[in-house]
Amino acid sequence: MAAKPTFYITTAIDYVNGAPHLGHAYEKILTDVMARHKRLDGFEVMFLTGTDEHGQKVAKTAEANGKEPKEFCDEISLKFRAMGKLLNLSNDDFIRTTEPRHYEASKAIWNAIKDNNPDDIYLDKYAGWYSVRDEAYFGEDELSDGVDSEGNKFKLAPTGAPVEWVEESSYFFRLSAYADRLLKLYQTQPDFISPDTRRNEITSFVKSGLQDISISRTNFNWGVPVPGDKNHVMYVWLDALTNYITGIGYPDMQNDKFKKFWPADFHVVGKDIIRFHCVYWPAFLMAAGIELPKRVFAHGFINVNGQKMSKSVGNVVAPQDLVDTYGQDQTRYLLMREVSHGQDGNFSHEYAVQRINSDLANGLGNLVQRTLSMIYKNCDGKVPKPSEFNNEDRALLEMAHAKLVPALRIECAEMRFNRALETIWKLVIEANGYVDAQAPWALNKTDKARMGTVLYVLAEVIRVLGIVVQPYVPQSAAKILAQLKIAENERDYSFVDNKKMLRSGFEIDPPEGVFPRLESNEKAA
Ligand code: MSP
């Protein structure tokens, strides 16, 4: 058998300075949907996620909690791992930057940069502003002034985070030497950064001139030691970005995984960290002589009731609360349906209930429930054998067989999952309309054979729907496909085919509702 094409996708790795929230959950679901879509489309997929555990932010939070950094990281990292289960993520690995494999990879990339381009790393002194919350350096010209309640003045980063003045001995990376190569990259590979607005943002940032960046710290020690200098730990972003190659076995670039999966197809990250992924990361890789990833996709932010999530506002939503209130698949569906490609999205309880009820309970759920109940009651519980298809039957079947998957491929290639779902739901709406128009309950009295054909067509459309909704609502899709007795190895896109239609004559189990209706007064998350 020919080897499958491969696909490597990663999420940002989350800082372990607090418990996971809705924003983290959104990014991980987004990436999971892409990974599942690609698997269904015949790819061998590697999906990596994990936790970012070094740096001053984590060290300070551990201290504030009276814990050693490692002990604290172990605790919080487990919560992120648990979020994977909670949301049914299909990641193939979970990386922690405190693992030995990652220390090895981080040291190796540092050495590779030094070996390939000895002038690109040099020792100097850093004197400037640092935001611990962003783990980022900022120039004076980027800052604004703030005043606290006691009238004390302080400086703020563009992200709104306070900055502190840092002076320390530091190794620098000669980023300034990479501007031309980076601009050429954005020009020759326009989809390296998407959506376009982000590419424009990064292009102007690089055009405005790149400064060399500090890549080591000396005033704390929670990090990967710099090879050959025990007074320094690596700047957390150099170590964090390296996770993408640690996860496939770097520094052993001859191992199967690395050869198969590098360069990565997609790094999925939030819009706040594109500078690191689209400027620093490709420059580090160029310097180390390692191929560049193919694409960075920047998603927007999830707000809650129109407001940015923040501890001080008290509107931080925990993924667990959503799953408890709406269910796992419902949460996944909601986030994928509500957020447009690369844009910020909003979460509100009222809207969530409306959306879940209209699309899942009344839309797909009702279609499945009424079709399977009629088969169960009126056809001796067996999928009926169809007689000849008429034009309406053929039109509906063609929509399912011929047009759906090609349209989904186009939307999913750009991670436009809201549009992919709209496309799928056009078929759900069409099929529900077909039920109403054909009225199989009336045919039960007048024309049993025709009723059998109508129910067969519907069951076949449900089979197709069950297959294509798997990336979004995997558990419910599995229930739908199990009710139709579809074998596990017959559930990928290649089975969406008019030559591989549902068998007839076999018995189905008593149908069970897949998507319960929610009451609108159910506890707000
Ligand atoms: N540790 C870095 C990433 C290193 S990747 C080599 C980091 N961590 S984070 O925990 O602050 O954020 C992790 C991811 O969650 C980022 O991609 C970030 O954009 C995303 N989000 C954080 N809050 C978010 C929302 N409110 N909405 C959507 N995504 C958000 O940055």
Number of strands: 19
Enumerate the distinct ligands: 5'-O-[(L-methionyl)-sulphamoyl]adenosine
- Computed Rg: 26 Å
Q: Determine the N-to-C terminus distance.
A: 49 Å
Output the keywords.
525 residues, binds 5'-O-[(L-methionyl)-sulphamoyl]adenosine, alpha/beta, 17 helices
Give a structural overview.
By secondary structure, the protein is of the alpha/beta class. Helix content is 47%, strand content 16%. It contains 17 helices and 19 strands. It has helices at residues 22-40, 56-64, 69-86, 100-116, 179-188, 196-207, 236-246, 256-261, 274-288, 319-326, 328-338, 349-378, 391-413, 417-438, 440-446, 448-468, 474-483, and strands at 6-11, 14-15, 44-52, 93-96, 121-131, 136-138, 144-147, 153-156, 164-173, 193-194, 213-214, 216-217, 225-226, 229-234, 266-270, 296-299, 302-304, 307-308, 345-347. The strands form five sheets. Strands 1, 2, 3, 4, 10, 15 and 16 form a seven-stranded parallel β-sheet that branches. A hairpin with a 5-residue loop joins strand 7 and strand 8 (153-156). Helix 4 crosses helix 9 (274-288) and helix 15 (440-446) runs antiparallel to helix 16 (448-468). It is elongated and about 90 Å long. It starts with 5 loop residues before the first strand and ends in a 42-residue tail after the last helix. It binds 5'-O-[(L-methionyl)-sulphamoyl]adenosine. 5'-O-[(L-methionyl)-sulphamoyl]adenosine binds at residues 12-15, 23-24, 26-27, 52, 240-241, 243, 269-270, 272-273, 301-302, 309.
